[in-house]
Structures are given as structure tokens and as C-alpha cells.
Amino acid sequence: MIDLHSHLLPGIDDGATDVAMSLAMARMAVADGIATMACTPHIYPGMYDNHGDGIRAAVISLQAALDDDGIALRLVDGADVHLDPGLLDGLRDGRVPTIAGSRYLLLEPPHHVAPPRFEESVFGLMAAGYTPVITHPERLSWVETHYDLFVRLARRGAWMQVTSGALTGRFGRRGRYWAERFTSEGHTMILATDAHHPQRRPPLLAEGREAAAALVGSEEARHMVETRPAGIVANTAPDALPAALAAVRQGVVREAGAGVDAARGPGALRRLFGALRGR
Ligand SMILES: [Fe+2]
Q1: CATH number of the domain where residue 101 is located
Q2: CA 267 to ligand 1 center in whole angstroms
Q3: Domain tally for the chain?
């Protein structure tokens, strides 16, 4: 599997605090079946002033430590990018890294407030040739009142990244409800761990893949942790990768690899159970 969202680099944000913790997390990831991991520290001007050169250097240094320790994890660079007026310029000049230098970037919306003109900002990035991957919409406090906004963004080609642990209840009932809803309604494009810590926020992706498989079938779940992440790292155009299950169900696209079985799968029933279980 490929995990495209982690705070594995030591000492540069609120993730791993030192190299020993990075190595412990990397060992856990490998044991979980993760072969490639993107190191995506926060870039949040004024709070986490990370930049492309520093991140790339830190990735090279941590990769050397992994290699020395015989940990078979391939690292690629990236960032968990806060929306900021200078974002597009930063992407163009390399201060803000995309995922593995591709057209895809992790875009982290503010947790507690719907930013003004969020849709316009996302569309602006897309018009400039980037594919924003919106991180953990299921965990935002304002998803409750703005779910339709995320559906509109997904329909227009922004990608939704749901947190693996949210699907398994690590972020509470409410996080699980929205994670299941994004996934069962066919808007989740990739799962990622958003790992910060070996115990509190562990780099575990297989459990999320299994939870997703119960909602949308194992083939679509595999697309979320293998096919689409591999396509991102290879900078494959989004329309050459398996389309969103929602688009397949609506007949917008004919072939997504997920197929008709997933569309007929247990998603609707699961959704009902999820709603009954409450938020
Ligand atoms: Fe993150």
C-alpha cells in the first residue's frame, strides 16, 4: 500500500518528535503493509513555516536513516498545505511541494471554520493545472453544514482523502459517520493515515482498507490505498485513474475499475446502519 499523508519527518511540525519516533512509525507502517509513504508536514504560514527545500532535505536524511536500519519503506516528499493567498505562487516556485513533485497536492482546510471562498480557491488551483486532494473532510467541524460543498468539489474533480482511522472509529462516532458517508456515497478517492505518533495517531492503513471494503467492495478499497496513490506518485492524469465511485454509479463515466458490483454492493445498507448508529 501507499500512504500519501503522514507527519513522519522528525521535529518539524506536530508529528514525530525525533528520529527514533520516525523509525518506530516507519517500522509499524512496513508491518502494516505500507511500502511507500509520503512525508507531508504542515505548511501553515506563521505556525509551521516549512518549505520545499527543507522538506526535501529532511526526506533524504530520514530515508538514509531508514536504509541504515534496514527498514523497507520508500519515502517521497509532499506537504499538508494550508490554504493561503500565496499558495499558487509557492507551488509554482517550489516553496510548496506537491506530492512527489506531481500535479497533486494535499490541501488541508481549517478545522473549525469554513474558509470564505473555499470553492473558488480550489477551482483556482485546478484551473492552474493542479489536482487538490482535500485532507480529512470527515474530521472538519463544519462538514455537518457543508457536506454538499465537498460533494460539489468532488464532482468538479477535487479529490477527497479520508483518514484510515476515521473509518475505524479512532476519531469518534462523528468522524466515523462522515468517513463512512464520504466513502459509501462514492466520494472518497484515497485513504491515508495522517500519522502523527506511533500510539496516538498510528500509521495504520490496512484497517481502513478493510473498513472501506465492507462499504464499497474490496476492489474499490484497493484503489483507495494502491491504484490511485500509485497514480499520484507517478503523476498520472486523474482521468486515467479509476474514477470516483459516485461518478461511476451516476453513469458519468463508464469504467472506473470499481465496476458494477461495487455500485450494487452493501453501501446503501451500511449507510442506513451508519445513520441509525448516529453521529
Ligand atoms: Fe495532516
Answers
A1: 3.20.20.140
A2: 27
A3: 1
